[in-house]
Amino acid sequence: MEKIEINLLLEGIYRQYGYDFRNYNYSSIRRRIWHRIRIEQVPTISALQEKVLHDPKMMYKLLSDFSINVTEMFRDPLFFLAFRQKIVPELRRLPFIRIWHAGCSTGQEVFSMAILLHEEGLLPKTRLYGTDINEKVLQKAKKGIFPIQKMQQYTKNYMRAGGKRAFSEYYNVINGSVQFKPFLMDNMVFAQHNLVTDRSFNEFHVIICRNVMIYFNETLQNHVHKLFYESLCANGFLGLGDKEGVVFTTHANCYEEVFGTEKLYRKLP
User: Fold this and answer.
1) CA separation (Å) from 60 to 16, 70, 89, 215?
2) pTM, 2 dp
3) CA 204, CA 52: separation in Å to the nearest integer?
4) Pick from 252, 243, 246: which is nearest to 76 by CA?
5) With b meaning 16 or more CB within 10 Å and e meaning fewer, what string describes 124-163?
6) What is the pLDDT of residues 164-192, one digit of tens each?
7) Residue 107 · residue 140 · CB < 8 Å
């Protein structure tokens, strides 16, 4: 009965609002639905469905529950170190660079990439695109303002990622928060994009989507890999999360490993 109710809720959301969570990992979606039920103090999933379908505000509460917004500056520092060592020399050859951070949440990894590219002299010729399904987190990303309490950890990550300066050079402290300097945002574009239902919007030299597809089932993972493959230019690079990979997908033979332990791949021509 519970599974039927969840399937009906997800089908209703898709038909009413266009958000398609039908192929998300079932146990993950189930946990988040019951989390919202407890907060709203409704008796059943069907009761939650009624609220969601008749009240857009409730829908966007549930959307925030479904959006996994776990991120930090230079998250998994060795990934960024590998990118600096293995991918940057390849990018130097290009006249212009387009990088897509899919599922960027509040944008910390986009800012991390901007800092890395600045230190490598590539930022002026790079356009960074950060997209997410959740408009609310994108508004935070556009401001470039983050909690000061996180800076000690972010600084450690930055140094482990091969940082070349004092991390504090890249931000100003304002009213107990930090705001990253405007030059980092000159070539950034943040926009809403749904990996499940939306198409590609450009051709990219690099696509980074880390720790997003772990919440998708196999069907949806293959769908997104198809989107990424079609969005990458010839010999473009794909970066995934440490628990993700291309090996067991329909596009396993479309890439070669650049740095296997850090899940960096190059699209085969």
Assistant:
1) 12, 18, 42, 19
2) 0.89
3) 36
4) 243
5) eebbbbbbbbbeebbebbbebbbeeeebeebbebbeebbb
6) 999 999 999 998 899 999 999 999 999 99
7) yes
